[in-house]
Amino acid sequence: MFASFSARWTRGRGTFRLAAATLVSGLVAVGALAGAGTATAAEPTQTQAGATATIGGLKTYGAAMIHDASGDVQVSAGLFEMSVDGGGMLQTYCVDLHNPTQRDAKYQETSWSGTSLGANKNAGKIRWILENSYPQVNDLATLAAEAGAKGLTEQDAAAGTQVAIWRYSDGADVDAVDPQAEKLADYLQKAAVSVPEPQASLTLDPPAVSGHPGELLGPVTVHTNATGVTLTPPADAATTGVRIVGKDGKPLTSAVNGSQVFFDVPEDAAAGSAELTVQASTTVPVGRAFTSDSRSQTQILAGSSESTVSATASATWAKQGAIPALSAVKNCAKGGLDITAANQGDEPFTFSLMEATYSIPAGESRTVTIPLQEDQQYDFTITGPNGFDQRFTGILDCRTQGSSGNGDAVQTLAEPSPATVGGVADDTNLAATGGSSVTPLIAGVAIGLVVIGGAALVLVGKKNAPTGE
Fold it and tell me: What is the DSSP track for 162-178?
């Protein structure tokens, strides 16, 4: 999933700089927490890629018993439901056992690399479990026979499936309370084999392009499992004259998987920017991860109705000088945020940070990795020529509570609720939940700033940026 950002292009500056709130022996990211457990007060525009949904609660569930050094803890285990923005419903299981679920948390479809699954060698086995158990397999009699169970209710099937997933997602010592559900969990755990990560329901590559007026800026390639997508041109297209076209320069209003689209910017256009929105209706592939910037527990998709998915791509242009195009994605393998900066201008794209200067030559693209601490909320702005500035916000959530070494147990629940597995999250105060490593983060509200010392930026590669030719 791409990190959230907002961008605007106005007249002004020259040198590209990473402008965090302040610099103190390194990069300082602003933890813009207005109150305990809340996201940033002013949310920037989201760079969407796939389905966006709101979690509604645990709907089909049984009981499970977690065994650890602090004793046995009983929790509810089963299927959550999410309502998709624009229409559709999703069913998900949890892959972050000890972390609480925030009520009505907003989730975004994302790749495994942006979650704990990216570094989990058993992630492929979790996907196999999802594809070979409930609700993908709704013939419960056949499923029970395969598992050697006497019979399975929907609640047993959901609980057994969740328990098997937790054993791989969190390395948990956990059993289903119901004997038949436990038989299913054991069967799924033993039978699972690794299968590849599913493709996204909808993404645009790259999500940001740049160039000169009078050129076709792009290409932006559509990747989707939908039969077709709708292209919505920039909101101010009527006044700016910016069009969305194919390689032949003809206007496009729709596209299919693999299509390449371009921003056609008038030759006399002043320096500026525009955004393309792509939307489709499709089923989201089983096994796709869903994360929330409110630190609500990570989910993995078990089932999808026909749902609305969307993605955005931006374009920036100027007549001369460096012309940046920026995008970002969480990289859990490296423990940070990868920012890709492309320069389609005719001058080097130069920026300074921590008394060091870096330069991206004209026509090239490089990726900069910003190391972040686990559970760190970041909020910073990058500025560039002609007053360009782009804000990046989010939270790095790459490890499960179990893998982080925190031994706190989950909260025991009297009854399931929209925030069941892993503890109940209070509507206003995340610190009151049964989650564990979240509490130090919220307690850090008084700190507000998190300093990342040392080499905060690392150039990890370069390639020729795509052109409109």
Answer: HHHHHHHHT---EEESS
| CA angle at 19 for the pair 13 and 23, rounded to the nearest 5° | 135
Q: How many residues does the chain have?
A: 469
Q: How far apart are CA 233 and CA 269, in angstroms?
A: 16
* Nearest CA-CA partner of 96 in 411, 407, 399, 405: 399
Say how many C-beta atoms besides its own lie within 10 A of residue 155's C-beta. Answer: 18
Cβ atoms within 10 Å of 177's Cβ, excluding its own: 16
Q: Strands 449-453 and 336-343, how do they pair?
A: unpaired
Residue-by-residue DSSP string for 305-344: -SEEEEEEEEEEE-SSS--EEEEEEEETTTTEEEEEEEE-
Q: Are β-strands 208-211 and 307-317 bridged in parallel, bridged antiparallel, or unpaired? A: parallel
Nearest to 188, CA basis, from 124, 95, 126: 126
Contact 381, 6 (CB under 8 A): no
- What are the CA-CA distances from residue 214 to residues 264, 271, 468 (Å)? 7, 12, 11
Torsion of CA 51, 170, 144, 415, to 10 degrees: -80
Its pTM stands at 0.79
In order of 109, 127, 145, the CA distances from 189 in angstroms are 25, 12, 16
Q: pLDDT truncated to tens, each residue of the chain (469 aa)?
A: 444 433 444 333 334 344 333 222 223 333 222 222 322 223 333 356 899 999 999 999 999 999 988 899 999 999 999 999 999 999 999 999 988 898 899 999 999 999 999 999 999 999 999 999 999 999 999 999 999 999 999 999 999 999 999 999 999 999 999 999 999 999 999 999 999 999 999 999 999 999 999 999 999 999 999 999 999 988 888 888 999 999 999 999 999 999 999 999 999 999 999 999 999 999 999 999 999 988 899 999 999 999 999 999 999 999 999 998 989 999 998 888 888 889 999 998 776 544 546 678 899 998 888 888 888 888 877 777 777 777 888 888 888 865 544 434 332 222 333 333 343 343 322 222 223 333 333 333 322 333 333 333 444 444 444 444 4
DSSP string computed for 213-235: TTSEEEEEEEEESSS-EEEE--T
- Using DSSP, state whether 238 is helix, strand or coil: helix
Encode 317-341: b = buried (16+ Cβ within 10 Å), e = exposed.
bbbebbbbbbbbbbbbebbbbbbbb
